[in-house]
Amino acid sequence: MTDTRAILAGGRQAPRFSVASFAREYGVLVIIAALLIGLTLASDSFLTPRNLLNIVNQSAPLAIIACALTLVIIAGGFDLSTGAIFGVASVSAGWIAVNVDPVTAMIAGPLIGVALGLVNGVIITAFNVHSFLVTLATSLVYRGIAILITGGALIPVRIPEFAWLGREKVGMVNIAVIVFVVFMLVMMLLLNRTTFGRRVFAVGGNEEAAILSGIRTKLIKIATFAISGGAAGLAGVITVSRLSMASPQAGAGMELEAIAAVILGGTSIMGGAGAIWRSVSGVLLMALIGNGFNILNVNPFFKDLTTGVIIVVAVALAASKPRR
Amino acid sequence: MNMKFLTAAAFSALTVMTPLMASAEDAPVRVAFLAASSQNGFNQAIYAGIEKAAKAFGGSVTTEIFDGEFSATKQYSQVEDLVAGGRFDALIITPNDTVGIATALEDATAAGLKVATTLFPVGPELSNMQPQVKGLTTTVATDPSIGARAQAEKVVEFCADKNPCKVAVIIGQLIYPFDNLRNETYKKVLGEHSNIQIVATGEGNYDPNASLKATQDILQAHPDINAILSNADQHLMGAEIALTDADIDLSKVYTIGGGLNQIAVDAIRAGKWNATLTQVPASMGAAALTAIVKSKRGETVPTWIDESKLRDIPQIVDKAWLDAHPDFVAEWQG
Asked: Measured between beta carbons, which residues in chain A are less than 8 angstroms from residue B239?
């Protein structure tokens, strides 16, 4: 009756709440909630402030990459080079910290990432090649550079001034967590509250329409790749600082984890739609699975199986959303 | 035949044979090293040993390294390519897949190449050091379960006066047969002592970051851990940071890794870690090259060279031994 009255009154039909549609829209949150409840019941050690902060702290580097990657994917791109950029930034920062200065190293890592991201963006737009192929190729180049810098060996960076970023805390909270939260908020503001953010959505939603609207789509794309590179560089510096060790193999496979987290959160792989919070949720979901397995001492053989099943369920939920 | 003719014939034969014999001794031998990954410090150390041993033969032995990219299929293809290419007389391999690569290596030996394997035997039995591939020249390795047993026994010693003694195991990856064998050995040895509990098993994937995360998680449930037993020094790098971050006194937790890299040597000397399982990759590479060149030149070489006997270093290196040998330098950085 209410619906009929609303229609008769010429108003729009009020959306009805349904558990199924909520689960489809917020599938990743539903699964996180289910895991939180399950792990809390299974282990006394799980739902403690220390463990929850531990999970966020562990996830900070990946979450930073995923936040920036969200912009790339919303703009219709794909970045397979974040893991390799992470590696180059790691060994560069490690080398600079040991041979030049720890503070310079912390600044240089993200800047090197931005430079490598810019290279990606320029190649993609100048030659009009799909970002998937370009970043696949540049990831090999960047990984090679990382190996050339170190000769394949690890670089020990046991310098207290450098370990500050990855190891120090403010109260109970790691500096790395604070850096991640600030970065996430900046990305949220950039995407949702600026002209640049609206243009990112426009480029990914309909590039032709964006061009006709006067948006310089190539510049927007280059910027998203530069931000993605910078984030990978920042994540690399945090990790080297935490481990006091730089490895040319660092970040291997991280690009796929970041993409999985973004997609898992519900950001459209087709571009034009998505949100930073979704990607962060995706990262946290994967971190919860790993944490749960270690806390409960479940046979590691089941970890990949469980992670895969959960990703399939989350993606299936998101895919079942009615298309408008 | 008169005596004069026989003497002349013998002299002629010797004249012909002498240069041939000399050329057999100095005949060029071209050796390909198929690294599990050429970008890995351990594999680079093996190759450094190969190169050093090759130089000892003068200029007659040349070497090249090939990157297996930690991929079983990549390495299989490399063996096929090298056999088909005919550029090499001998192969030294550090196998990524100890079972699957066997057929490719059989083809190599059938094609006349000398083949040596390092670090692990090739074939279905990881504890069998005798050739499981037809024609294999030599295996330079130690049964992984022997080292794992020695590590676990050190933990047993430490736990002797503790009940319960809580142990966390950080293993590489259980999908690898050698890591599975090590993990089973740990469980068997520690399981024989009722006071010892393996409270958690995490995968470190030979990555300090992965082992850091695993140890951090394990410490959430078991902050009262007594020992960390790991097959790799890279894992202890992460574990050490997790313990320090959790404000756990490192001197109270027994930590033992594997690999004897320089980072481990420094950490043990500094009293941060307790011990590590000895591995000598450069000596292993040198032994493999020497054996394979000698075999190519017609000498008989052992079918198994025990890695643990290559240098006069105890199986488990601890602070006491390092203090007694202040000039000791590990064969690889880490």
From this structure: none
Among candidates A45, A46, A250 on the partner chain, residue whose Cβ is nearest the Cβ of B209: A250
Tell me whether residues B221 and A156 touch, CB distance under 8 A. Answer: no
* CA atoms of B275 and B12, how far apart (whole Å): 64
Residue with tokens 């053989």: A301
**Concatenated DSSP letters for A273-320?**
---HHHHHHHHHHHHHHHHHHHHHT--THHHHHHHHHHHHHHHHHHHT
Answer whether residue A283 shows pLDDT above 90: yes
A210 is in which domain, residue-wise? 41-319
Are residues B64 and B173 part of one domain? no
Q: Please name which of A291, A53, A58 lies closest in space to residue A172, comparing C-alpha atoms.
A: A53
Residues on chain B touching A54 (C-beta within 8 angstroms): 216-217, 220
In a domain, B132, yes or no: yes
Tokens representing B16 are: 């012909």
Q: Is the pLDDT of residue B10 over 60?
A: no
Instruction: Judge: A295–B218 Cβ closer than 8 Å, yes or no.
Output: yes
The per-residue pLDDT for B154 is 98
B50 touching chain A per CB within 8 A: no
Q: Is B207 on the interface with A (CB under 8 A)?
A: yes
Q: Please report whether residue A9 resides in a domain.
A: no
Q: Is A147 on the interface with B (CB under 8 A)?
A: yes
Question: Does residue B1 form part of some domain?
Answer: no
**How many whole angstroms separate alpha carbon B75 and alpha carbon B73?**
5
Asked whether the beta carbons of residue B202 and residue A239 sit closer than 8 angstroms, the reply is no
Q: pLDDT digits over A117-146, tens only?
A: 999 999 999 999 999 999 999 999 999 999
Distance of alpha carbon B287 from alpha carbon B46, whole angstroms = 10
Suggest the residue from B169, B175, B183, B220 to mutate for an interface test with chain A (most A CBs closer than 10 A). Answer: B220
Q: Which two tokens stand for residue A240?
A: 């080297």
- Full residue range of the structural domain in which residue B108 is found: 8-136+281-307
Structure tokens at A147: 């190996």
**What distance in Å separates the CA atoms of residue B334 and residue B332, rounded to the nearest whole number?**
6
Overall pTM > 0.90? no
B248 touches chain A (CB under 8 A): no
Tokens coding A323: 């298309």
Question: How many domains would you assign to chain A?
Answer: 1
Give the per-residue pLDDT at B19: 42
Q: What are phi and psi of A131, to 5 degrees?
A: -60, -30
Contacts of A44 (CB under 8 A, 6+ apart): none
For chain A, say whether B39 makes contact (Cβ under 8 Å). Answer: yes
Q: Give the model's confidence band at A274: pLDDT under 50 very low, under 70 low, under 90 confident, else very high.
A: very high
The pLDDT of B109-113, averaged and rounded, is 96
The answer to whether B292 touches B92, Cβ cutoff 8 Å, is yes
